[in-house]
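U., I forgot to send this yesterday:
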Amino acid sequence: MSQPLSDRTVALVKATVPALEAHGLEIVRVMYARMFEDPMIRDLFNQSHHGETGSQPKALATAILAYGQNIDNLGALAPAVERIAQKHVGLQILPEHYPYVAEALLAAIKEVLEEAATPEILAAWGEAYWFLANILIAREDHIYRDLASAEGGWSGWRTFVVDEVRPESEIITSFVLRPTDGRPVVAHKPGQYLTFWLEIPGHPPLKRNYSASAAPNDTSYRISVKREPQGIASNWLHDHASPGTVLKVAPPAGEFFLADHPERPVVLLSGGVGLTPMVAMLETIAERHPGQAVHFAHGTLDGSTHAMRDHVRALAEARPNIRTTTFYQCPRDEDIAGRDFDRAGQIDEEWLRKETPIGDADYFLCGPRPMLRALITALSMAGLPSDRIHYEFFGPADELLAA
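Result:
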């Protein structure tokens, strides 16, 4: 267990907050550049988050700033710590990797802040880093051990074979995966993701997270992947992952999931490919909680991008406790209201207030960042407690954490 931070360290870290606000992103970029000089460390990360948008550096800069601001109130960071630990488990980050980060972070602080990075400041940040690192290492060790010891669980990377490929829309395809050893698989929590180690010719190893899009079972997983225009991994899966393709997969991870026994009505809100974890939750409720009230609202561009429409409709038609509403942002001429979709436009605050039980429900959201920013803000302004707003999206949560 980590020793408490000294009062002197807390004071010194707090004193660097203005410098982090001004130079945090530059520090993080220098840190990653140093780390990625080592191919072993580079290959641990999802490099799609380090491109032109720089979403991962922004996310880490925001997290470091939040750590500095809350160094004397670390309980406020507990949800973020759990999210980071789950991401690390998906990427198979291990204790021996942490010293590389420490060395690169302290060197980056010294390089960017120059004379302001006194030996005393660097020592304080070194102590603060290892205090948080030891918390993460302990939590990750607990998660790793639980996954390895669970029925169907495993450690590290396990090989799976693509058993079935199923187009769901013009841009989304599902892949059913079964382990090559024929043994059971650990049941994911509905909403969690799997991490894939992809070896694509002409590229270094790629790490990608894809949400499980089916209810948990002990034999297989299903992921549903959107073809991204510039997505190396998604295009390779769509073009080359046919039945028989073997993939390396880490155990399920993630802190976004449906409770084992939901206590309140559930509202699922998704946009685009964000429906994948929601379908896993919806299937689970249909199979295991037949009396649980649930409202699934999904927004997409039009009928060509609407995945799993018939499957979701069949679940709702068979169970009176399930209600669905579909939004098409720009319906085509052939998209018929009342047949293909329910409402034109997007899920918005007015609809939420009129059609969902904000005072009584738990809300789960997954989709594009603008949608999440708008809906999370609307739910918060309507008085919904933060512990009843659960969200996930496919990338670092920099903007949401900042908000």
